[in-house]
Structure formats: C-alpha cells, structure tokens
Amino acid sequence: MSTTVMARQFRPVRFFMMMAVAAFVVCGVTAFYTHRAAHGRTAEERAAYAIGAKAGEEALAGAKVPTDADLNMMAQKYFKQQGVRRTAKLGSGLRKRLH
C-alpha cells in the first residue's frame, strides 16, 4: 500500500481572499491599539491627557503655556492643598510626559 498524498489544486481566488481577510484583521487590531496608546497606556496617563484636553478647551485664545518652573509651583501648591507629600521631583521632562 503506497502512502502518496494527492496534492490539492491551487485556487488563486480563495488564496487572495484569505490574504485580504487576514490583512484586514491585522490592520484593524493595529489601528485599535495604536489609537488607544495615543493618549497613554496607563489610567494615570489617560487621566492626565483628559485633564489637559479639558483645560485646553477652556483656555483663553491668547493664553500661553506655563514654563516648567510654573508647572512645578502649581504642582507644589496642589500637593499642599491635598495634604500629600511629594516623594519624587517632577523634573524638566514633566511637559513631555503630560503631552
């Protein structure tokens, strides 16, 4: 008894349709995670983005972005009002992290 396997006939239409479906799924998943990560990966980053977006909508037309020193002073005042002691310095990269 021989164990020859009969090869199936190649069907180009079926092949290209399956490749199109696979590409559509991969692109959809990539777009979903890319869009989700655009505003931060953690809950804290997303909350900071939402606060910044709301502040930007409510800002006056001629308002200017505060400097790093002003941001540190605002953060210190906020922490004092909340009764929370800061354990780490915010540093000069604060603006980059909040964008």
In terms of DSSP E residues, the strand content is: under 5%
**Through-space gap between termini:** 71 Å
| Succession of helices and strands | HHHH
In total, how many domains does the architecture comprise?
A: 2
> Spans with pLDDT under 50 lasting ≥5 residues?
none
What form results from the Cα inertia axes?
elongated
Largest sheet: none
- So how many helices? 4
According to DSSP, the number of beta strands is: 0
Radius of gyration: 27 Å
Structural class: mainly alpha
What fraction, in percent, of the residue positions are helical? 55-70%
Average pLDDT:
80
Written account of the structure:
- With 99 residues, the protein is mainly alpha-helical.
- It folds into two domains: 11-63, no CATH class; 65-99, no CATH class.
- Helix content is 63%, strand content 0%.
- The protein has helices at residues 12-37, 43-58, 68-82, 94-98.
- The protein is elongated.
- The model has no long low-confidence stretch (mean pLDDT 80).
